[in-house]
Amino acid sequence: MKSIFFLCLLTGTVLAQSPAKRPIVPSDILRLQNITDPQVSPDGQWVAYTLSSVDKDKDKRNSDVWMISWDGKQSVQLTSSPDGESSPRWSPDGRFLSFVATRNGDKDSQLWLLDRRGGEGKKLTDLKGELEEYEWAPNSKTVALVIRDKDYSDSAKTKIRTPYVIDRHHFKEDRKGYLDRRAAHLYLFDVESKKLDTLTAGTYDETAPVWSPDSKQIAFVSNRTADPDKNENTDLFVIEARTKAPMKQLTTWAGTDNNPVWSPDGTQIAYLRSTASTNFIMYDQPVLAVISADGGEPKLVSAALDRPVRNPRWSVDGKSIAVLVDDDRRTYVGAYELASGKLNRVAHDDCAYADLEQNPKGGWATLMSKPQLPAELYAVENGNVRRLTTIQDAFVAPLQLATVEGFTSRSKDGTQVENMLFKPANASAGQKMPTILFIHGGPVGQDNFGFDLSRQILAGGGYVVAGVNYRGSSGRGLAFCKAIYGDWGNKEVADILGATDYLVAKGIADPAKLGIGGWSYGGILTNYTIATDQRFKAAASGAGSSLQMTMYGSDQYVNQYENELGTPWKNTDKWLKVSYPFLKADRIKTPTQFMGGEKDFNVPIAGSEQMYQALKSLGVPTQLIVYPGQFHGLSVPSYQTDRFDRYLKWFDQYLKTSVAVLGSGK
């Protein structure tokens, strides 16, 4: 030791030992900051965005508005209220940055303004109702607002709420609760005079307002069928920006038309159209379409792609439309040349892009995440991708994250399935390890090369973790997505078991230490799988269901049920078939942990309670965790960490991982 010390003195060097990296643990959820909603300034020099972080004392997330210069050299926090701010939007003249906040005792969210010349934020509106969306007119004089009518039904002077009076077909929805007849309408707000004018009225909802470049018209989305509760037939409409103006319907597709965006010259509107024209549209992939602002037959730009596209954005010259494309575990930025119909890949790699906003000077602002890096802001210009923010560096710096790779498996019927594999960073080559099949929800969606916090945390606990893009997932074409229509728990389970067989055959997974879990449809598939195959030694089913017949009228999916399965009293056999995890619960031998949110109207907690009760009666080790006041997605940070703590304890108990050897920190 002395010789080393004197050597350092003689040479003038300092021996610094870098801190050892550690596996990720559930409490790291509290350190993760989330970037959302990038918005480019009219001069192209700044990108505003929201950044949310956890307030540990209040046990909640709080979002603030920030901005970063286009060259990435300057970063400025614009708001710091404990109430939180969202939806930053630049006024087109560049003078203001607006945002939505509920401050100073307001019960309803209001629009606030930050003057770029300096000063504190000022409240712009005093709305009576729920502000759901807003959009600046290009002339910066008027703002289009979407406001849901105020709820005056509860006028009781005591804390006892008046009864809910319901007469709708679709009468409940997660987070919103029981649905009444209040509609969301368009309003015009004059920034200078603060006058609010009604643009639409009636019993229908209007959403997604976008201004024409000359500030004279607004395109929007609405379902004007006889009973919108019974279908998803949204269309595009155009209305002049003046009170009592008539509206014009542009589209007549029986499916969904949404996400309108005006061309720079105001002659065309790009939008997303569903592939299917049925009443219920889940197993679908949106197609980029363009229609004249005067109406007529639309041009289906991406129909031949057979991949879902989203976030359509016109180029500055109006000659192309950029989109995000979900394709086989990746999401890339593409741009369609309107003249030729050619799709150019603008930015692509083993990563996942999310969100896309045009820079008026050329290029795009986007969010992108990689397998070992949560989402950051990037600039895409001239075929190059340039990172703007470095917010996540502090999060990943102390962590030893799992290595991530793709793998291909085949199911018993020969179907090829593309999956994701997470290996603990310190796993020995060739070592058979405890393995968890952690199944994504949806079912429409895909596991991809973006950052996956859930699977990283499970891998940090010393497990190989696999994400299976079973049939029903997106990114592999419409036929692959629709393959499970009306036939739940069949092909998906075959795909999960095929991936399991692959991992065992390759010497990756220890066949004696297999676990399975998931949330939402991932929880449902967990139930289906353990009722089909007894090889799994532990399971964690979150926000799932099994006795599907009891979900009719209990959750928010009445349209799906009636269109995909039919009504229970007419198609009883089909309902019983898809309810087999509960009806054949005596086949389940896997110790299973069930979880859910107390107020979940998406997949009500009853689905987990039923399975818990069944396994309890059968003597199979089981546990039920109910998170108070939570909806389908857990929002309280301490509950989020608790969920993964319980996952790891449950799997550790039954899969008996060598935690000390793997260095999980436990």
Automatic annotation (TrEMBL):
Keywords: Acetylation, Hydrolase, Protease, Serine protease, Signal. Gene3D superfamilies: alpha/beta hydrolase, TolB, C-terminal domain. Residues 1-16 form the signal peptide. The keyword Acetylation applies. It holds the Pfam family PD40. It comes from the Bacteria. GO terms for molecular function: serine-type endopeptidase activity. InterPro entries: 6-blade_b-propeller_TolB-like, AB_hydrolase_fold, Pept_S9_AS, Peptidase_S9_cat, WD40. Residues 451-656 form the Peptidase S9 prolyl oligopeptidase catalytic domain. GO terms for biological process: proteolysis. The keyword Hydrolase applies. This enzyme catalyzes the hydrolysis of the N-terminal peptide bond of an N-acetylated peptide to generate an N-acetylated amino acid and a peptide with a free N-terminus. It preferentially cleaves off Ac-Ala, Ac-Met and Ac-Ser. Also, involved in the degradation of oxidized and glycated proteins. This is Acyl-peptide hydrolase.
